[in-house]
Known about the structure:
Blueprint: H1 4-15, E1 21-26, E2 29-35, E3 40-45, H2 51-65, E4 69-74, H3 79-96, H4 100-106
Parallel strand pairs: 3-4
Antiparallel strand pairs: 1-2, 2-3
Amino acid sequence: xxxxxxxxxxxxxxxxxxxxxxxxxxxxxxxxxxxxxxxxxxxxxxxxxxxxxxxxxxxxxxxxxxxxxxxxxxxxxxxxxxxxxxxxxxxxxxxxxxxxxxxxxxx
Length: 107
């Protein structure tokens, strides 16, 4: 079962040219959206989420699965704002992903 917001954000990512997997399981955690080519997790965060739990989840996934990029979007975000934030995140991650990190990710 996917929420309307998950579907909306997934659609934005697809329009930006990204292949995605929804509700991707990483060990004991399930993430809303995963972009495998970019090794990027996008989470839709509502009032039921607690920062401490999100930090714990992010640390576990990063350490055990090598995911470096995480983006958190509020559950009440508009599609337009989500697109703008995701585009900024893409630019930021593109700048970070230079040199040896890309080589490590490809291996």
